């Protein structure tokens, strides 16, 4: 390669790598702010500040959803296997909300065990399958049949 | 093999040869792209099975994923063109840099809009300042930035050099778009299609998706070739072969 081009290549690559490194460090340093939500582990360990507005995310624990028959009040436990806390919400839940489903809730952390949600969003996972396949998996007792619904 | 590639590189690097190549390929590429895309979309939207939880609303994946993948790949291609432009000062790289941006911007916008429409029934929101969504919005702005920078500087060679730096630097953002769902907590789910491991989508849904993606990429390629051909003609308007071409007709 001719020396002028070689030098230009080195300069351009150096600028690119420098900027890539700077961006990586910035994203790494700001990841607490870039992360959309706190995980249950962070809530239980006290990493998430109590009393402030924030988002939390995790899986709706199986069998924990309690709906008030008179009002739109609903409470459920959110878990990630390392921590669990209760979410209280008043309003209409998204269609995809189910037990075992991943959710992101926006609201206030009242205490380390209780979160008052103003908005509940459903996550959906990257698995797509027709209902018949899901039925077949459940019938066969395939471990993926329920677990994959949990989302990540 | 290497020598063939090298010969292609040099031949397609010549505007005149490129013009002839585009003239031969385009009449075939346009219909091919539209047919492949139509097959993928009709199969996906009308014949693929419904999804167990999302029902029919998941079908927007057949537009969302092809548009997003096209926008990301187009930007990487633009970054490569930018590198060649900065280091080797190759004319055709400048032309490609200009030709790649507009359709890429359209695809990025389609990806964001279709994603918002999909997000409302599934997540329950049109928009969240989630890392994946935000970095995709930045990708759209990068595309627009490259386009604006090119038209803001009158001298085409100067304009290309300024834009190629922006194109190259923006590749960092493409990496963030791709890996944001793995490195950070996001509302957006992880990747469904994986090159090196099994995809987490049922085959009956996957094949129409792959066909729509191929169709969208072909459509992008056809659009880029057409834009590049026009740009070559405009840049080479004073050269002998273009004059002969114009006067000959």
TrEMBL record, chain A:
Residues holding heme: 124, 128
Membrane-protein topology: Single-pass type II membrane protein
Subcellular location: Cell membrane; Membrane
Pfam families membership: CcmE
Stretches in topological domain Extracellular: 30-152
Keywords: Cell membrane, Cytochrome c-type biogenesis, Heme, Iron, Membrane, Metal-binding, Signal-anchor, Transmembrane, Transmembrane helix
Biased composition (Basic and acidic residues): 136-152
Location of region: Disordered: 124-152
Record topological domains on the Cytoplasmic side: 1-8
Cited function: Heme chaperone required for the biogenesis of c-type cytochromes. Transiently binds heme delivered by CcmC and transfers the heme to apo-cytochromes in a process facilitated by CcmF and CcmH.
Family under the similarity heading: Belongs to the CcmE/CycJ family.
HAMAP family named in the record: CcmE (MF_01959)
Protein name (database record): Cytochrome c-type biogenesis protein CcmE
Organism for this UniProt entry: Alcanivorax xiamenensis
Upper classification of the organism: Bacteria, Pseudomonadati, Pseudomonadota, Gammaproteobacteria, Oceanospirillales
Name of the gene encoding the protein in the UniProt record: ccmE
Automatic annotation (TrEMBL), chain B:
Keywords recorded for this protein, A-Z: Cell inner membrane, Cell membrane, Cytochrome c-type biogenesis, Membrane, Transmembrane, Transmembrane helix, Transport
Subcellular location: Cell inner membrane; Membrane
Occurrences of domain Cytochrome c assembly protein (ranges): 33-188
A Pfam family annotated for this UniProt entry: Cytochrom_C_asm
Record's keyword annotation contains NADP: no
UniProt entry tagged with the keyword Cell inner membrane: yes
Transmembrane portions of the chain: 21-48, 60-88, 100-119, 131-150, 162-181, 207-228
Membrane topology annotation: Multi-pass membrane protein
Principal place of residence: membrane
Superkingdom of the organism of origin: Bacteria
Family (UniProt): Belongs to the CcmC/CycZ/HelC family.
Function as written in the Swiss-Prot or TrEMBL entry: Required for the export of heme to the periplasm for the biogenesis of c-type cytochromes.
UniProt name for this protein: Heme exporter protein C
Source organism: Alcanivorax xiamenensis
